[in-house]
């Protein structure tokens, strides 16, 4: 059984998609051990509590320095003894030490088809604003392992979403979540939980039979 920590900062719709997929059996061999937020007001914490999942808040604001926060955060995470860390809208830069210690054990969801509209400054609505400004006809979402860069880690799954002529950043964001993020994040977790994902030379290989979108 793969033990998950889900890290959140906001509404937690991706967390909800994971909870629902575990409940419905579309994710197997995995359970959420803990939800951690940097934001005490994140609705994601309520979603966790409603499902009887341990919900913690640890914020850089509680510490005198970034180093002190990084150390406390990593200690807290290590104490939870999880196998996989899932970033589901977590807006805090991860401690470098954590990336080292959890190599290929941290995944993130990004709301575009990487390498488009990603990297520093591309988060939240800004991603969708940039996609609309460029006039792309297709966008989507990407689940990837986290490395030291911003959105540069090995790509696990991607799903494309059509852009509508009258889209606003908000309508596009919503469609990307519904059609892509809430689909590929649970799917990536299920693949990892069932031993179907391996990383070689910075590229992900998914075992035959489980790598097509459905
Ligand atoms: C999502 O759009 C995700 O791609 C991004 O942050 C947002 C989180 O939304 N990284 P939610 O908190 O899961 O509703």
Structural features, described:
The chain is of the alpha/beta class. It folds into 2 domains: 102 residues, Rossmann fold, CATH 3.40.50; 106 residues, 3-Layer(aba) Sandwich (Rossmann fold). 36% of the residues lie in helices and 24% in strands. The strands form 2 sheets. It has a 7-stranded mixed sheet, covered by helices on one side. A two-stranded antiparallel ribbon has the order 8-9. Helix 1 links the parallel strand 1 and strand 2. Helix 5 packs across helix 6. The longest helix is centred in the C-terminal third of the chain and has 25 residues. The protein is globular. The two termini are 24 Å apart. The relative contact order is 0.15. The model has no long low-confidence stretch (mean pLDDT 96).
């Amino acid at each position: 059984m793969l033990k998950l920590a889900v890290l959140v900062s906001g509404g937690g719709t991706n967390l909800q998609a994971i909870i629902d997929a575990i409940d419905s059996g579309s994710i197997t061999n995995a359970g959420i051990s803990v939800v951690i937020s940097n934001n005490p007001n994140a609705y994601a914490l309520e979603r966790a509590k409603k499902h009887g999942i341990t919900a913690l808040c640890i914020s850089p604001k509680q510490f005198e320095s970034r180093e002190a926060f990084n150390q406390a955060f990593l200690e807290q995470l290590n104490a939870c003894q999880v196998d996989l860390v899932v970033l589901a809208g977590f807006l805090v830069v991860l401690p470098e030490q954590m990336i080292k210690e959890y190599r290929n054990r941290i995944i993130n969801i990004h709301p575009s088809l990487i390498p488009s509209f990603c990297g520093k400054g591309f988060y939240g609505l800004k991603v969708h604003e940039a996609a609309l400004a460029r006039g792309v006809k297709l966008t989507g979402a990407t689940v990837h392992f986290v490395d030291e860069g911003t959105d540069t880690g090995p790509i696990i799954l991607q799903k494309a979403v059509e852009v509508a002529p009258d889209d606003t950043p908000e309508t596009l964001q919503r469609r990307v979540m519904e059609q892509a993020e809430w689909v590929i994040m649970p799917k990536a977790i299920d693949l990892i939980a069932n031993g179907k994902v391996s990383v070689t030379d910075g590229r992900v290989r998914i075992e035959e039979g489980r790598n097509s979108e459905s």
